[in-house]
Amino acid sequence: MKNFLVTGGAGFIGANFVHLLLRKYDDIQVVVYDKLTYAGNLDNLLPVADDPRYHFEQGDICDAARVDEVMRQYNIDVIVNFAAETHVDRSLMEPGSFIQTDVYGTYVLLEAAKKYGVERYHQISTDEVYGEVLEGRSTEEDRLHTRSPYSASKAGGDLMCLAYHTSFGVPVTITRGSNNIGPYQFPEKVVPLFITNAIDDIPLPLYGDGMQMRDYQYVQDHCEGIDVVLRKGQPGEIYNLGTGVETPNITMARLILKLLNKPESLIQPITDRPGHDRRYALDCSKIQALGWRNRYNFEQAIEATVKWYVDNEWWWRKIKSGQQYKEYYERQYAGRELSR
Ligand code: NAD
Ligand code: DAU
After folding, report:
1. Whose C-alpha lies nearest to ligand 1, atom 15?
2. Residue 277: enclosing H or E segment and its boundaries?
């Protein structure tokens, strides 16, 4: 019996990872530890809510006493840390919470990992730590060149993980993933935002010229990759995790509209994100050497995601109809329209 602590497990990728763990393994307990910020949502965990191997504990990863209590109570063997502030645009508005959770919170979890001698501490990181890559692909050895408060905070977390491995022997692994899409992604991120706006015939706010490139991967592939690294990865090592294929945002927007049978006139160019990274591109040969391959290509991932949002309006309408979301949308998008 192995006891997993999945921090941030009520968020998008964390919840998908909890579903995967409970589907794949019988002899485990999974404890989700989550602060339930605006992005945390217990609806994401409804499919496992009645599973006796699943437990939920509300708490902040920055709260060392509460983390300690949960570590002891459940006799945790493995920590997988998804908890973070994750939206680049919000990091431009309010960087403080990013530094607090993504850097300090990581340190608190690493201290717990060290104290309790866990078998593995796994950190979920991002391709954004390499900064924009106009040509070629980032390998795990590349220097970090962060350009937003979000990516700088994530890089701080990564470096702390490596420091705890070197200084204290904590068995740390890190995955640096590209843009995930799929079920339960909060509709502030571009793909669920565009799908749900398109369903309601609301304009799709496309930043700048729409030629920024992202590697959109299906969340289940990302979660399988994390599981492979937990089983086969070497402590102290970093693994890039993406499809290795990049697509311009305008192409992504057009595909969504085509699948929903909506007109391209819904695309509304707006002023660009400050410091917008033009392209990320990963070299994923290191994780492929462990036997991992993505099963969904870009088109399949978008298609499956569109289908999920069409079939699960109950999930996203609750969020988009809330006052908090409406205020965010107004603050983020009002008055940014550019002429077409
Ligand atoms: P998300 O925003 O959907 O969820 C984050 C979760 O963390 C929420 O449940 C939230 O309540 C929780 N949380 C936030 N602050 C917390 C705190 N102080 N204590 C405890 N819980 C807290 O995020 P996501 O998109 O699922 O991303 C998960 C992880 O994967 C993050 O570390 C992110 O940096 C990384 N990542 C995301 C992507 C992506 O495309 N979404 C790609 C690569 C890496
Ligand atoms: O690359 C991995 C990262 O992907 C993760 O680490 C982050 O947590 C996750 O949020 C995501 O960051 P991005 O900034 O790439 O994702 P976002 O969905 O915000 O934007 C994707 C692209 O779409 C980016 O080029 C900006 C553009 N965009 C975004 C929004 C929200 C738009 O054109 N319009 C929008 O309204």
Report:
1. 84
2. none
